[in-house]
Design brief:
The protein is an alpha/beta fold and 129 residues long. It has five helices and five strands, in the order E-H-E-H-H-E-H-E-E-H. 33% of the residues lie in helices and 22% in strands.
């Protein structure tokens, strides 16, 4: 069984997120999504989410491409998670291109192109007008 792992906040879930998850799942048999906790988002990323971790987790668990949702609590856990969950492939959006190449010693690293016309930032900007 080929295991794929990806990371994200997945706040204001939209079709760009679904596209990413669908393409990530197509790279293997089992998709693990590490979901940024509220504390990690605030303390490390300086982002406040609209939906709580539990609500974002429930939304992700309802998506057929997602097999397991785990908490992301630190930047450094990616290396540990790849080992712990026996991930064969690490997937993330191409806005992070090159940032996780150090994981290539442990697994395949794939940077997927983002859906260009949609983002959570864009949604928040439109709603604030």
């Amino acid at each position: 069984m080929k295991r794929v792992i990806t990371y994200g906040t997945f706040d204001l879930l939209h079709y760009g997120h679904i596209n990413l998850l669908k393409r990530a799942k197509a790279l293997g048999d089992y998709l693990i999504v590490a979901l940024s906790t509220d504390e990690f988002n605030w303390n490390e990323k300086k982002k406040k989410c609209y939906f709580s971790y539990e609500k974002r987790k429930a939304l992700l668990e309802a998506i057929r491409y997602v097999d397991l949702v785990i908490p992301e609590e630190s930047w450094s856990q990616k290396e540990t998670d790849v080992d712990l969950y026996h991930a064969d492939t690490f997937v993330i959006g191409d806005d992070w291109k090159g940032k996780f190449d150090f994981l290539k010693e442990k697994c395949e690293v794939v940077y997927l192109e983002r859906t260009p016309e949609i983002s959570t930032t864009q949604i928040k900007q439109e709603l604030s007008k």
